[in-house]
Amino acid sequence: MTTVSTRIHPSVLNADLARLDAEIARIPSAAGVHLDVMDNHFVPNLTFGLPVVECVRAAHPDAFLDLHLMIEQADRWAPSYAEAGCQSVTFHLEASQAPVRTARAIRSAGARAAIGLRPQTPVEPLRDLLAEFDMVLLMTVDPGFGGQPFLDAMLPKIRRTRELVAASGRQIWIQVDGGIGPATIERCVDAGADVFVAGSAVFSAADPDAMVRSLADLAESRCAH
Ligand code: DX5
Ligand code: ZN
């Protein structure tokens, strides 16, 4: 029996945001839809916020919404996205004054709580807090923009995160975000990641859903090794 253990979550950041509804409809094979909320403070870019996410929720009631907050006021806003019906809400450790309280508020609202780390932020300080989270998001580029090249220097950090998760004995997803595509996904699988965000690789493809399936096949076949 083949158990699917990896997930592809396309990011809509580089999709046609004027046609967000239709763009999401182009990726029916995706396990989740990754939504990047940016405030032009935590990162030098500005995208969309709660009203747009609420509309996506209503337009795609069956989609797994994977929300990635790149905002300074993480503790203030993260629970609202869980209440809006996102299945997973990621906020950044660097932006949080109270990560445990915020993670618990997200879980209380019925969503998976996830913590994000910029490339330069070490994962080791999370060791004693891992039980509070359902996923760790490792940025594999500096956050803020799609289409940047994958940072190979992050591979050891992915491995160390996998070791920490294994030692915790918990089923915590490890997501990689930034520069993921056919040329980089396998080395991330090898390092221990299991949830893959792919933005430009998916939405610059002529057939985005075929790219999702091809990334899923690459990840699954690599896992089987
Ligand atoms: C960047 C965002 C990513 C971005 C990934 O800060 O968090 O989700 O959309 O885009 P690609 O896959 O093009 O690197
Ligand atoms: Zn993201």
Short description:
With 225 residues, this protein is an alpha/beta fold.
Overview of this protein structure:
This protein has helices spanning 20-25, 50-59, 74-83, 99-108, 155-168, 185-191, 200-203, 208-223; strands spanning 7-10, 33-38, 65-70, 88-92, 112-117, 135-139, 173-177, 195-198. It has one domain (7-223): Alpha-Beta Barrel (TIM Barrel). The chain starts with 6 loop residues before the first strand and ends with a helix. Strand 4, helix 4 (99-108) and strand 5 (112-117) form a beta-alpha-beta unit. The protein is globular and about 45 Å long. The protein is built from eight helices and eight strands, in the order E-H-E-H-E-H-E-H-E-E-H-E-H-E-H-H. The mean pLDDT is 97. It is of the alpha/beta class and 225 residues long. The chain has an eight-stranded parallel β-sheet. The structure holds D-xylitol-5-phosphate and zinc ion.
Q: Topology of this protein?
A:
Elements: E1 7-10, H1 20-25, E2 33-38, H2 50-59, E3 65-70, H3 74-83, E4 88-92, H4 99-108, E5 112-117, E6 135-139, H5 155-168, E7 173-177, H6 185-191, E8 195-198, H7 200-203, H8 208-223
Helix pairs in contact: 3-4, 6-8
Bound molecules: D-xylitol-5-phosphate and zinc ion (ZN).
